[in-house]
Amino acid sequence: MRGVTEDVPLDDAPLLDELMPWSVAPLRLGRSWIVAPDARTLRARWDRLVGAEGAEREELFRPSRARTPSSSVAALPGQRTGTVRFARESGTCPEPVRLAHGPFDEQWLLPDHRLIDTARPELWRVADERQLFAVEQGYVPGAAGPALLVTAALPAGRSPAGRPGRIRPLFRRPGAEEPNVAPGLLPLLGERYRCRVTAHEVLAWAVAAARPSPAGCRVPLPARPDVWSTGVELGRGLTDIQLRGVRGGERPRLPGGRRPYVRAPIPARPGTLAYEPGEETLSLDDGRISPVPAEAWEFQVGGVRMLEQWFAHRTAPAEPGSLEAIGPAAWPQEWTSELLELVTVLALLAERDRARAALLAEGPWLSAAALRDAGVLPVPDTARRPASVLDHQEEGPEGQFALL
After folding, report:
1. Burial of 393 by CB count in 10 Å (0-12 exposed, 13-18 middle, 19+ buried)?
2. DSSP letters of 341-393?
3. Would you say 10 and 218 are in contact if contact means Cβ atoms under 8 Å apart?
4. Closest CA to 255 of 338, 344, 341
5. How much is the average pLDDT of 185-199?
6. Nearest-angstrom CA–CA distance, 274 and 190
7. Which pTM was predicted?
8. Are 329 and 221 members of one domain?
9. For the chain, what is the mean pLDDT?
10. For position 143, what pLDDT does the model report?
11. Tell me, what's the pLDDT at 403?
């Protein structure tokens, strides 16, 4: 096959945009109060908002050019929320849903289209118990950390440095139907590697091998079957760690003796986060968690430490009287559990960084020219557009039936 090269193929490797061609831009929420680290807070904020009237409701709502309490908006696909103008809303809070608010930071979202500036309904339409989302991180020159992450929760898609990436569902239809893979790629790889290649394996390989570039994630494809098998196995492990037991996997655990524990109780309202490398201790004011490997503390995405960002999202001050100011009176126990799990996840991922780096030391590689020779590239325009999903009804504004 032409287009095979011995060199590390970053410049000539195909883009993830060519291998998984349908992508969606990040959500634009428009107002921060519709997201919170716990669902109870969202219900309290909803009750406060619908209990207000007139100008007070307008101010609490935080209007934008895209959304005001008078906006007429259809329901989000798959969500049972009201479609009357929010200025007349008096009902109960919709059930919050999990949101991958940022890398390694799952929070909760009010799934009400009237509250979200740009919700990307095409993502909600394919989000189900079998879907996975590849979230491409925005390019930051010289920044450490993975270029591609995976989540089962609906992703907001924003990167820590504020540079938007792209969201790529693994499947184009609900029920794991129609893989979001370039037409012809799976049989081409199957012939090359002498085995059946699935969309899940393409995603696993991409998680292990993706490298950042100004044009987007580049994903070198190996010419040798053994390198492909090694990378897929590594990528599956990385994916399982990130999914944290969702989709039938096991929750991540460090071996005994290395598992982080609370050594001193976390105070009701911690204000600072610090790390002591000699003692491998994470301090939240007087609270202590250890052992915390230095690799977990230093783990970054887009040049931002993940533990620091996670803590900031839960302790940042809010404007008094705003809906953002409504939150837990004291540090909830579930936040401590989430923090312990996050330390575990970051430590396990960091352990595999050397294996990820070694993957690109192998060769030879398939170039983009090889994919063009095989007719896989260029990708047809139809593969870049959302698929039609016509097997369910969606409610339009003011309760009208929405035509798709």
Report:
1. exposed
2. HHHHHHHHHHHTHHHHHHHTTS--EE-HHHHHHTT--SPPGGGGSPPP--SS-
3. yes
4. 344
5. 97
6. 49
7. 0.94
8. no
9. 93
10. 86
11. 45
| Domains identified in the chain, total number | 2
Average pLDDT over residues 231-253: 94
Q: What letter would DSSP give residue 15?
A: B
Q: Which tokens sit at 256?
A: 């005994």
Whether 67 and 88 share a structural domain = yes
pLDDT of residue 160: 83
Rounded Cα distance between 170 and 150, Å, is 10
Contact predicate 244/345, CB 8 Å: yes
CB 84 within 8 A of CB 132: no
Q: Kindly report, residue by residue over 343-390, the tens digit of the pLDDT.
A: 999 999 999 999 999 998 887 999 888 899 999 999 999 999 999 876
Residues 332 and 349 in one domain: yes
Same domain, residue pair 301 and 244? no
Shared domain for 55 and 195, answered yes or no, is: yes
Q: Which two tokens stand for residue 246?
A: 């969702």
Segment 261-290 shows an average pLDDT of 98
Question: What is d(CA 250, CA 256) in angstroms, rounded to the nearest whole number?
Answer: 16
| pLDDT given for residue 165 in this prediction | 82
- As a whole number of angstroms, the distance between CA 96 and CA 40 comes to 9
Check whether residue 36 and residue 77 sit in a common domain: yes
In this structure, the strands spanning 287-290 and 261-264 are antiparallel
Q: What tokens appear for 36 in the block?
A: 């919170």
Residues of the chain by 3-state class (helix, strand, coil), percent to 5: 35, 15, 50
Structural domain including 268 reads: 261-353
Two tokens, residue 42: 């969202």
E runs forming strands in 215-326: 221-222, 261-264, 273-276, 281-284, 287-290, 300-301, 304-305
pLDDT of residue 138: 87
Same structural domain, 164 and 51? yes
At 30 the three-state DSSP class reads coil
Residue 157, phi-psi category: left (phi > 0), alpha (psi -120 to 50), beta (remainder)? left
Same domain (yes/no): 19, 159: yes
With H, G, I as helix, E, B as strand and everything else as coil, classify residue 260: coil
pLDDT tens-digit series, residues 78-115 = 998 989 999 999 999 999 999 999 999 999 999 999 99
The long-range contacts involving 9-13, CB below 8 angstroms and separated by at least 24 positions, are 9/220, 9/365, 9/366, 9/367, 10/211, 10/213, 10/218, 10/220, 12/367, 12/368, 12/369, 13/211, 13/218, 13/219, 13/220, 13/221, 13/365, 13/367, 13/368
**Residue, of 250 and 298, whose pLDDT is higher:** 298
